[in-house]
């Protein structure tokens, strides 16, 4: 059985509630988001469980930045301190889970 799954998701970029609901449903089926690329979203197999997801948009991020900017890293550190870990990101779109 494969431990990774790739899917081409067709959500609107700003449909945060739809994305969050979809990711929570996937986690309950045993798949957690690992990476977002231009070729699709990559999931890895987990034990099926209830995971809460939230989507944020960092306006100063760019797909051309090789590493997160200082402000973006500060934001991610703040989220980590409050119990949210970064699941995946793509330019301005950042997905956190707890």
E-strand count: 6
The biggest beta sheet reads:
3 strands, antiparallel
Q: Report strand order across the widest sheet.
A: 1-3-2
Low-confidence stretches: none
- Net shape: globular
Q: What is the strand content?
A: 25-35%
Distance between the termini: 26 Å
Tally the helices: what do you get?
A: 2
Can you put this structure into words, describing what you see?
Strand 5 and strand 6 form a beta hairpin. It contains two helices and six strands, in the order βαβββαββ. The longest helix is centred in the N-terminal third of the chain and has 13 residues, at 16-28. It has helices at 16-28, 70-81; strands spanning 4-7, 31-37, 40-45, 53-57, 85-90, 93-97. It has a three-stranded antiparallel beta sheet. It has a three-stranded antiparallel beta sheet with strand order 4-6-5, with helices on both faces.
List the helices and strands and how they pair.
Elements: E1 4-7, H1 16-28, E2 31-37, E3 40-45, E4 53-57, H2 70-81, E5 85-90, E6 93-97
Antiparallel strand pairs: 1-3, 2-3, 4-6, 5-6
What structural keywords apply?
26% helix; three-stranded antiparallel β-sheet; alpha+beta; 34% strand; 98 residues
In short:
With 98 residues, this protein is an alpha+beta fold. The protein has helices spanning 16-28, 70-81; strands spanning 4-7, 31-37, 40-45, 53-57, 85-90, 93-97.
